[in-house]
Amino acid sequence: MLLNEFGIHGDISKKLNKVTEILPGLIICIIIAGIGKFIGNYIPTIGGASIAIFMGMAVGNTFGNEKIYAKGSKFAESNLLSYSIVLLGGTLSAQTILKLGVSGVVFIVLQMLTTITVAILIGKKLGFSLNFSLLMASGNAVCGSSAIAATAPVIGADDSEKGMVITIVNVTGTVLMLLLPILAKMLFPMEIIKPSAFIGGILQSIGQVVASGSLVNEQVKDLSTIFKIVRIIFLVFVVLSFGTMKRNSSQSNCERTNSKIRVPWYVIGFFIMCFLFTIGVVSPQISKIFKLITNNFEIVALAGIGMRVNFRELIKQGVKASIYALGVATIQIVSAIVLIMVLL
């Protein structure tokens, strides 16, 4: 009995400690989001989301870079964003997703294949290992850190390779997150599907897609998220292909692994909610509530994303790694523009 009580109190204590660790950073993100929304009402052309991102960057690279805020900003960036994506599914019908059409899916597949091919070829030219190149390919083609984490055990990559690639991919994504909305507005003015495909088909993490789409407009943010989610669905095929490629390579001396490949839970949640909305289980009234919650969660998440942009990391990248990242990103942008012009 005493042991049970001790166990229960221990669990409660751990949970309270976890909440206490998250609160400081999360509160700052909520404050930034609130200020961003308030200012955004007076500058609608910029919008609260954009202001929250840039305010987050300013705070995160000054007084907000203290360790005490790290867990809270991470919670906002990852957990709140994941919840908002699930709830977003409850605001979109299957008909909305079908807007991508066959051409949209073909665009995603061809864009991913181009990214993978280019990442492997450039890596080989620059003298990087096959493991490093495959991690770069999966991170840039699919979903950033999540794809890298899923690929690493399957190909036998070590922690140093994984850590280096995660840093390069995240830094590249941060730069593209700010650059792509500018290019999208220049190349595809007054359009929705094309800029959505452009942003959702290139950016590495789903957080970067939401942030970048928000810098264009609300519709582009939602549709680019769908493009991105379809990319994530292909994670299983990419990782299995890389595992086979590594085993068949003459450079491979690693043993087969039985690592499980998991599709992120929020992707499954998104489609379940979308199905429930489509068949009418989620009513239009509830859908409006979901939309309100999603918008608020997203702007807090965007503040967290901004806070976690580390300008020092941008500067610290080595020349060789920077050339690799720049080469892959450039080809991604060019191929996306060409494929969008041809297919969409």
Task: Name its key features.
344 residues, mainly alpha, single chain
Largest sheet: none
Average predicted confidence as pLDDT: 83
- The total of helices stands at 15
Low-pLDDT runs: 254-258
C-alpha Rg, in Å?
21 Å
Would you tell me the structural class of the helices and strands? mainly alpha
Run of helices and strands: HHHHHHHHHHHHHHH
Short description:
The chain is mainly alpha-helical and 344 residues long. The chain has helices at residues 2-42, 48-60, 70-89, 94-97, 101-125, 130-155, 159-187, 193-200, 206-214, 218-233, 235-248, 265-278, 284-307, 311-316, 319-343. Helices cover 80% and strands 0% of the residues.
Q: Would you mind describing this structure in some detail?
A:
There is one protein chain. The protein is mostly helical and 344 residues long. The protein has a domain at 91-281 and 310-343. The chain is 80% helix and 0% strand. The relative contact order is 0.17. The model is unreliable at 254-258 (pLDDT under 50).
Q: What's the layout of helices and strands?
A:
Blueprint: H1 2-42, H2 48-60, H3 70-89, H4 94-97, H5 101-125, H6 130-155, H7 159-187, H8 193-200, H9 206-214, H10 218-233, H11 235-248, H12 265-278, H13 284-307, H14 311-316, H15 319-343
Helix pairs in contact: 1-2, 1-3, 1-13, 2-13, 3-12, 3-13, 5-6, 5-15, 6-7, 6-11, 7-8, 7-9, 7-15, 8-9, 8-10, 9-10, 9-13
